[in-house]
Amino acid sequence: MIRVAILISGSGSNMLRLVEDMTGDHPARPVLVASNEPAAGGLAKAAALGIATLAVDHRDFPRDRPGFEAALLRPLLDTRPDIICLAGFMRILTPGFVDRFAGRMLNIHPSLLPKYPGLDTHARAIAAGDTEAGATVHLVTSELDSGPILGQARVPVLKDDTPQSLAARVLTQEHRLYPAVLRRFSAGDKTPVMLGSEGLVRGS
Ligand code: GRF
Question: Any catalytic annotation for residue 138?
C-alpha cells in the first residue's frame, strides 16, 4: 500500500476529495494530514475521518524556515510517506526540504501553468482577458509552481466573472483533477491527466 501524507493550510476541500477517493482498489491510503495553521479547518475534518493529524505553527519559527521544516519533518517522516500532497499548503518550502521528496511531492495550483505562478491567479487571468483558466497538478521542485505537469483542468472565463466566481468554478475542477492524478501517480503512471469542462480529454 502506498502511504500518502497531505499538507494543508486552510479548509482542506482538496484534501477531503483526495481522502474520499483513496478507498477500495485505490493503491494508496492517507497516513497523515499536517498543517502550518493549527486552526486550519481541514485538520478537524481529517481527524473526524480517523486520519492522524499534526499542526506545526510556522509563527513559532519567525524568520526561521529551516527550524519550522525541521519541526515538521520529524513527525512527518515517522509516518513513512511514499507520496506528499500539498493541498492548499501556503508555505514556500526550502530546496533542502523539496529535494528530500524529489519526484514524489505533488502540488495543486489554481492556474494553467506555466501561466500565473504565485498568487492572485484568477484576478490576473481576468485582467489579461483570458478566455480560459484552470488548475494544474505538478511535481514540486525548488522553483515555485514550475515542476513537471501531471494534470490540468480547464474552465471557461465568463465575461462577468469576478476572481471569486472564477475561483469557485476552478475549485470544482480541482476536486476532480487532484484525485484523478493521485490515483494514476500512485499506480506508477505519470501520464498527465487532462480534464476539459466536459470531463476527461480523449487520450489523456
Ligand atoms: C485551492 O484553490 C488550491 O489550488 C490553492 O489553495 C486553494 C485551497 O483550497 N493552492 P482548499 O484548502 O483545498 O479548500
Answer: no
- Residue 117 grid coordinates: 505562478
For residue 202, is it within any domain? no
- Domain count across the chain: 2
Whose cell is 477517493? That residue is 21
User: Distance from first CA to last CA of the chain, Å, rounded?
Assistant: 25
Tens-digit pLDDT profile for residues 105-159: 999 999 999 999 999 999 999 999 999 999 999 999 999 999 999 999 999 999 9
For ligand 1, is residue 11 a contact (CB within 6 Å)?
Answer: yes
Backbone angles phi, psi at 46, to 5 degrees: -65, -45
Closest ligand 1 atom, CA of 89?
10
Which domain covers residue 36, as residue numbers?
Answer: 1-101
Please tell me whether residues 141 and 87 are part of one structural domain.
Answer: no
pTM beyond 0.90: the answer is yes
Q: Is the CB of 117 under 6 A from ligand 1?
A: no
What's the 128 CA to ligand 1 centre distance in angstroms?
A: 22
